[in-house]
UniProtKB/TrEMBL annotation:
Gene3D superfamilies for this protein: Peptidase S8/S53 domain (3.40.50.200)
Organism lineage string: Bacteria, Bacillati, Bacillota, Clostridia, Eubacteriales
Protein name (database record): Peptidase S8/S53 domain-containing protein
Ranges of compositional bias, category Basic and acidic residues: 33-42
Biased composition range(s): Polar residues: 43-53
Organism: Clostridium punense
Keyword line: Hydrolase, Protease, Serine protease, Signal
Region (Disordered): 24-79
Record flagged with keyword Hydrolase: yes
Active site location: D157 (charge relay system), H187 (charge relay system), S373 (charge relay system)
Signal peptide: 1-18
Superkingdom, taxonomy of origin: Bacteria
Keyword flag Hydrolase: yes
Stated family: Belongs to the peptidase S8 family.
Amino acid sequence: MKRAFLVALLLMSLTVTACSPKAKTTDVNGEAKQSEASETAKENNTASSTNIKITKHPSAADFGRGSVNTLPSPNPAYEGDKTLDLRGYDLSALDLKDKAKDLEYAEFDSKTIWPKGLPDKFDPKKQMELGKSPGLKVRELHKNGITGKGVGLAIIDQALLVDHVEYKDNLKMYEEIHCFANEAQMHGPAVASIAAGKNVGVAPGADLYYIAETHGEYKNNDFEYDFTWVAKSIDRILEVNNTLPKDKKIRVISISVGWDKSQKGYDEVNAAVDRAKKAGVFVVSSSLINTDGYMFNGLGRDPLSDPEATSSYQPGLFWKDKYYEYGDKFYSIMGEKVGVNIDEALLIPMDSRTTASPTDPKDYVFYREGGWSWSIPYVAGLYALACEVNPEVTPEIFWSTALKTGDTIKVQNDGKEYEMKKVVNPLKLMKELK
């Protein structure tokens, strides 16, 4: 479905996601799908007007799935991906009582129909509800009135289901720049709801500005990256920001994608990020280590564990699968490769999240395995909260304070105990920033 983080990236930033061919989207086989650009499609994409509105309503996604007589197999589209995509399937005819192992990495949505008998340790309803929480007691901040109210948060990602209940009330703008999908994709609703969703978001009170964008195009049956479109999207957000009142400014942009020197548009997108910095806008992306020098990594969680307890978190599934053999260097291995001390890497929730689904304005989907794509809007949401409690906050102050107030947790591997440092503590972070 996603794995929009493809960490072929130990030495560089991630290079997939919003409307890209490698981002897992919504086709029935769980394989990557990209809406083909019609030759008649014009660059309606480069809106120059400062009108702030929703310019398009992409249709809901339809997986075209139905009843099955056997449990689908995990999709091997990505090496090491254990997730079992059950979104939209009618499984009512199956006997799954003895399938606990098969369902350990199940991902499902509101349209998944379950049989009466399920394994004792598999509870999709409970997993779905637990996954709605941002975790780490973020909801306590909401109860205390810290929701990101009045703070502008922008996202550049895939085509969005703009009427989803999670964010429709705070969605101020939806535009498309070089994006050819006519139906909502899985990635957009997910990141929008993680950042600013009413029930699942980190900053449910933030004003949401959204641009759907495709960072490249197909040529000769191959996708060629072109990050000039991301640059144009950033500039469009800055243009809109110039029209907003001082107390309603966009303070952060979430972009779940990264770029490297080998790709077209590398200089252009870096220049756009620099313009955003000068305008007081924090751009959070998979290239954050290169643009700002900030390192982060993702955390996993057992689907039925308490998302509020720091002790429930562990290495994210992707990192665990790939790098856990390094033991106490599990996280530092990343930092060493890019020249960052591990104590400066902020650890952010990533796995076992419930997000808005692209299939219906009231549908939700549970993703057992996340990725940096899910951590990035989480960071953006936290920054929106920080801007509310302290309008004078800067990325430097935010990041250094997050590291200072972060928690250390211990994890077990092969009978050995290791420490994971700097797990973000939203309560301490906001208290310190006030």
